[in-house]
């Protein structure tokens, strides 16, 4: 079992973490190619060395760490055991952990996913998870409810960083002129209404997506903005994507920091440079 949250809502804990450490989420994505580049074998032992080095370099420095579950699952039960350690040790070192699992299922199965990642009793419980709403936002209710009860958060996909996203996300809903992405923003806004300083239902909006025309003014929650670095977006792009919502944006990058390994100091320096360059871009 990982440590609890003290029932302080995720949104409030995120605001404190960002104030203390800067607005940055670093992904822990143990790609086989990165393991090789670090001189590690592509097996569970190599995964463990890679992931725990990343934790050592980053968990005392960066506001949010985002392990990508698939890269751990690919190594079977030993990989999942490493993921449990990554979550526990990162949280002990003061980082918030956003577990990237992009789950979405019919409501009754969604309850099981919620218990796996958002219940205090689970060995895989993180501070927040990524969720996919394309079975309908309402199907996520068990996760939203459990996250709220346990002081955890969720980030719901809205406008993802990949080029295929618009096929679904910019489509117009049957009930009127809104896009699917706008509907997700409106659902998040409804869940976060009145939360202070920030709600715990976030959205995922890629840093790569450019001007969207989406209205984020009522969301009152955090925006995870992946795509910086390896996918071509820069910190300067955030202003175009998020306009006057920049204060609530959590920029995310993974390979662009991890490629500086295997040295702990080099990985940490790369993350600190990213924090500074993002802070400079957001301040101008
Ligand atoms: O939910 C995510 O984290 C996510 C959403 C999205 O729209 N785009 C996106 O790249 N991600 C994740 O963010 C990480 C990006 O890694 P880099 O491209 O190496 O910075 C990967 O783990 C992706 O799965």
Name the features.
single chain; 284 residues; alpha/beta; TIM Barrel; eight-stranded parallel beta barrel; 44% helix; binds orotidine-5'-monophosphate; pyrimidine biosynthesis
Topology (elements, then pairings):
Blueprint: H1 10-21, E1 25-28, H2 32-37, H3 44-58, E2 64-67, H4 69-73, H5 76-92, E3 96-103, H6 107-118, E4 128-131, H7 141-150, E5 153-159, H8 166-169, H9 180-192, E6 201-205, E7 223-225, H10 237-242, E8 249-253, H11 255-258, H12 264-283
Parallel strand pairs: 1-2, 1-8, 2-3, 3-4, 4-5, 5-6, 6-7, 7-8
Helix pairs in contact: 3-5, 3-12, 6-7
The protein binds orotidine-5'-monophosphate (OMP).
Main beta sheet: 8 strands, parallel, barrel
Number of domains: 1
CATH architecture title: Alpha-Beta Barrel
Share of β-strand residues: 5-15%
Helix content: 40-55%
Q: What is the oligomer described by this structure?
A: single chain
Order of helices and strands: HEHHEHHEHEHEHHEEHEHH
Q: Distance between termini?
A: 43 Å
- Tally the beta strands: 8
Bound molecules: orotidine-5'-monophosphate
CATH fold-level assignment:
TIM Barrel
Classification by helices and strands:
alpha/beta
Low-confidence stretches: none
Give Rg in angstroms: 18 Å
């Amino acid at each position: 079992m990982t440590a609890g949250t003290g029932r302080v809502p995720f949104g409030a804990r995120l605001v404190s973490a960002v104030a203390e450490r800067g607005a940055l989420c670093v992904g822990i994505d143990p790609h086989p190619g990165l393991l090789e580049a670090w001189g590690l074998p592509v097996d569970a032992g190599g995964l463990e060395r890679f992931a725990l080095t990343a934790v050592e370099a980053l968990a005392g420095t960066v506001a949010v760490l985002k392990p990508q579950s698939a890269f751990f699952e690919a190594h079977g039960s030993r990989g999942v055991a490493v993921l449990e350690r990554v979550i526990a040790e990162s949280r002990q070192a003061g980082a918030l952990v956003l577990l990237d699992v992009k789950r979405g299922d019919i409501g009754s199965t969604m309850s099981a996913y919620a218990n796996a990642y958002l219940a205090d009793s689970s060995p895989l419980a993180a501070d927040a998870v990524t969720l996919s709403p394309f079975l309908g936002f309402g199907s996520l209710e068990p996760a939203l409810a459990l996250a709220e009860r346990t002081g955890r958060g969720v980030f719901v996909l809205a406008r993802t960083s990949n080029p295929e996203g618009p096929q679904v996300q910019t489509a117009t809903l049957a009930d009127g002129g809104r896009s699917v992405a706008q509907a997700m923003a409106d659902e998040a806004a409804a869940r976060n209404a009145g939360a202070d300083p920030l709600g715990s239902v976030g959205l995922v909006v890629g840093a790569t997506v450019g001007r969207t025309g989406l209205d984020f003014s009522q969301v009152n929650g955090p925006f995870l903005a992946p795509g910086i670095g390896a996918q071509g977006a820069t910190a300067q792009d955030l202003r175009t994507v998020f306009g006057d919502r920049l204060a609530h944006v959590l920029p995310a990058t993974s390979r662009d920091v991890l490629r500086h390994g295997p040295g702990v100091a080099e990985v940490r320096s790369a993350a600190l440079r990213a924090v500074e360059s993002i802070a400079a871009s957001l301040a101008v």
